[in-house]
Design goal:
The protein is mainly beta and 118 residues long. It has strands spanning 11-12, 23-29, 38-44, 53-55, 59-72, 75-80, 84-87, 93-97, 103-109, 114-116. The chain starts with 10 loop residues before the first strand and ends with a strand.
């Protein structure tokens, strides 16, 4: 059994899926902990976001702080703390903070691949 306290191990992201500085990630539950699910806390400073990308799995985002945007196939969807969005596998999308608000979400996803489109 593990007890995890989110926010204690945030690190600047070096992943290529993020196109700006200001994104911090903290793995909460990894494939070392469980076989079928990963949870990652992702914090965005104002205006920071991901690049357009897809996944080989369905992605679930649970908003935890602030107001963010999830753009799916060109349609921007506002996401506020406490809301959840499900992004079907293979769907081109990006997500991040609005220009006027920092944002954080927990990414809930099984093992799989991320493919950057641009």
């Amino acid at each position: 059994m593990s007890v995890i306290k989110p926010g204690t191990n945030l690190k600047a992201s070096s992943e290529q899926v993020f196109d700006r500085e200001g994104v911090f990630m903290e793995p909460l539950v990894t494939d070392r902990d469980v076989e079928i699910q990963r949870l990652t806390l992702v914090r965005f400073t104002k205006g920071a976001r991901t690049r357009l990308h897809t996944h080989t799995y369905d992605q679930v985002l649970l908003a935890t702080e602030g107001t963010g945007v999830v753009s799916i196939e060109g349609q921007d969807n506002e996401l506020q703390a406490g809301q959840i969005i499900v992004i079907p596998r293979g769907t081109p999308h990006w997500h991040g903070a609005r220009d006027d608000s920092p944002f954080a979400h927990i990414n809930i996803a099984p093992p799989g691949e991320t493919h950057i489109i641009q």
